[in-house]
Amino acid sequence: MKKPAKKGSAGRKRRPSQADYEALSQFRYLIRCFLEFSQNAARAHGLTPRQHQALLAIRGYPDGKPVAIGDLAERLRIRHHTTVELVDRLSEAGLVERVIDPDDQRRVLLGLTNLADRHLAGLSAAHLDELSRIEPLLRQVLSRRAAR
Questions:
Q1: Can you name the residues that pair with 32 across neighbouring β-strands?
Q2: Taking the chain, what is the end-to-end CA distance rounded to the nearest angstrom?
């Protein structure tokens, strides 16, 4: 986890302008709209938003590497024991399989089932469409900030 920036004269920046506040407000609004879309899409597939996030984190792990519980906890920014409970529910629903790491018998790796892959493919296609829809708005907000 990143440490907060240190305060002091070297770290002080200019006072935000009205345009800065508007850009930040618009950016947060677009994020909230996307998250609302995502939550509704997950529920339409019979998943909770957190289950969808977990499936995506497992499938989208960098370089397609296997994911352990600790990796998933970090990606979801939740505690280890909460992740174990989430994986238990995903496993009971037939969405995730636990596999013993052949290189380290103490480590459990997570894999998606075919059912999870089907859910995730549909959800991801819908999310990519939604991102394409809001991309021009995000670019507009981000380019305003970059120009400052």
A1: none
A2: 28
Query: How far, in Å, CA of 25 to CA of 53, rounded?
Result: 25
Residue-wise pLDDT tens digits, 45-76: 999 999 999 999 999 999 989 999 999 999 99
Residues 13 and 11: their CA atoms lie apart, in Å, by 6
CATH 1.10.10.10 fits 18-146, yes or no: yes
Q: Pull the structure tokens for residue 64.
A: 């397609």
| Cα 15 to the center of its chain, rounded Å | 31
**CA 35, 36, 39, 43: dihedral to nearest 10 degrees?**
-160
| Tokens encoding 101 | 């790491």
Quickly tell me which residue has 């900030």 as its tokens: 145
Domain extents in the chain: 18-146
How far apart are the C-alpha atoms of 78 and 51, rounded to whole Å? 13
